[in-house]
Design a protein that fits this description.
This protein is mainly alpha-helical and 285 residues long. The chain is built from 7 helices and no strands. Helix 2 packs antiparallel against helix 3 and helix 6 packs antiparallel against helix 7. It is globular. About 16% of the residues have low confidence.
């Protein structure tokens, strides 16, 4: 099963019959009930020739393999680009109709770049950083817009996003959440249903059937939907963490670290935007 994250939908982090990443990671304790336990490298797209069947998973001795340091560095570069783009947009684009148009245009360009990268067979740092820059411009404009109405909302949203990401990582590393095939299937089904409902809600709002944003209103119902969307973002993060762990365990090429950074960035942007709306809702009189 493929991840709902478009970054992992084509290559590297979504292969063949795996549930959400480099297929089933051959980790300790997975032997019982693991259909690949007899040959842990059968589903490994990066398995090295000559490895013996049943050998424990080890990273190749070659240096051109993805490590956690690679993921951290690329993620810092990608998120840093988003932050720079957001700061520049905030400082140079005053809240106006023109800036709103630029925000929409930047969001569309970022989406196109994300889709191009998703369908490429290899990660492109230029595309990923370009996506981050345009996404930053979009976030900078909407953050300034929210701040003009609800002072301090962007700062609170940043803190909220960091809290969600940190708590999710803590829960994941503590083993309180195990990313299994069933977990991924159920979560992705819920996420797809949520996106369909949001799309229908948008159409109803556009055609005037639903008033005040419908399910995305700035009221109690909108707050509940926002909280649910943030929980979905946390779910995506657990898939991202699992995919990165599996990639490192299987010895994925170092270039795949760019895909990991790209995926984490898209998920964190999702959480930030939803957190920004939620902060605004709770800041209303």
């Amino acid at each position: 099963m493929r991840s709902s994250n478009p970054v992992f939908s084509r290559r590297g982090f979504s292969r063949d019959n795996g549930y959400a990443g480099f297929n089933t990671a051959p980790q300790a304790g997975y032997a019982q009930g693991n259909p690949y336990a007899q040959n842990p490298y059968a589903q490994n797209p990066y398995a090295q020739q000559g490895l013996q069947q049943g050998a424990p998973p080890q990273a190749p001795v070659t240096t051109d393999r993805m490590t956690m340091d690679d993921v951290v560095v690329r993620s810092a570069m990608t998120l840093g680009t988003v932050a720079v783009g957001a700061v520049l947009a905030w400082a140079l684009l005053p809240v106006s109709t023109t800036s709103y148009g630029l925000a929409v245009g930047s969001a569309l360009v970022a989406f196109v770049l994300a889709m191009i990268q998703s369908f490429k067979r290899t990660p492109s740092p230029a595309l990923i950083l370009g996506y981050a820059a345009f996404e930053g411009v979009f976030l900078g404009v909407i953050s300034e817009m929210y701040n003009s109405r609800w002072s301090g909302a962007p700062f609170q949203a940043v803190l909220g996003t960091m809290a969600v990401a940190g708590a999710t990582l803590l829960v994941y590393k503590a083993g309180w959440i195990r990313v299994t095939a069933r977990y991924a299937r159920m979560g992705l089904a819920i996420a797809m249903a949520f996106m369909v409902v949001m799309a229908v809600n948008l159409l109803l709002v556009v055609f005037g059937v639903a008033e005040n944003g419908g399910l995305r209103s700035f009221g109690p119902l909108g707050a509940l939907v926002g909280i649910f969307a943030i929980l979905l973002g946390a779910f995506f993060l657990t898939l991202d963490f699992k995919q990165i762990e599996d990639g490192i365990a299987y010895g994925a090429p170092r270039g795949e670290a760019w895909l990991a950074a790209f995926g984490l960035t898209t998920t964190l942007v999702w959480i930030y935007v939803e957190m920004l709306r939620l902060v605004a809702i709770f800041s209303r009189d």
